[in-house]
Amino acid sequence: MRSLYYSLNQFLKERFGERVQKVPLDAGFTCPNRDGTKGRGGCIYCNAYGSGTGAARKGLSVREQMLHGMEHMARRYGARKFLAYFQAFSNTYGPSDLLQRRYEEALVDERVVGLCVGTRPDCVDEAVAEVLSGFRDRGLLVWVELGLQSVHNETLLRINRGHTFEDFLSALELLKARGLLVCVHIIFGLPGEGPLEMLETVRTLARLPIDGIKFHELYVVKGSGMEKLYREGRYRPLTQGEYADLTAEAIAHLPPRVVIQRLTGDPRPEELVAPDWARDKTGTRRLIEETMLNRGLYQGKYLE
After folding, report:
1. Does residue 201 contact residue 150 with C-beta atoms inside 8 Å?
2. CB half-sphere exposure, 162, CA atoms < 13 A
3. 11 and 99 Cβ atoms separated by less than 8 Å
């Protein structure tokens, strides 16, 4: 039976021969869109934790977070290999010696087989690429996760993103020249975008040398700029059905080699304002897969 899409679990099992779990880390970085370099307050949808755990605020070191996370993942999933996932804020935003130390700290023992580094396109330069490729040269799996969100500059300006699509293209070229794997984050349901704009983002990325993609729905969290728009009735989130239809359609536009790392977002329940269905991660994933089956869709169908 044909697989609907190329999942991260499948990719990792092909590479390592067994289950590998990502351990989310907060390394205490910030963001140029928060510290005044490009702006303050961040993107209009971002929370106070920079989409991370908040562990750095609690004084937990990267090593402590990694060891605790590995223990938890081993108990829950039976995993014996792990990836250090630098998730919160922009994890290449700092001097190269600091980046080197933070990444090294996550390599607590031989069970850690790779790094996943989340960042912004405008926080990638030659020095960053050199540090990351050094870990790749040591035999570690290295994924660089670039938060793009949309290929439309009008949208990026509207959401106070602080970078352009051209910044993304420059970062992608630099990382691919070093042979690094690149996963792109995009968001469906951004203000001012309809299905045409959202699918154009995916079709554009399908023509570029990306290695992975993460899909997220735009959800509204407390204290964000989006909350004000939502409370004033100036923003309507996508329904669960609309999101499932869009994501199913988008996957059919992607080359089969692109790893689908995520199908839906994962909000903190205590922060979520809307939509309520964003809490139902399993149900949303199931609905996307059912939609693909019902419509005869699979990854790469529209490229055949």
Report:
1. yes
2. 22
3. no
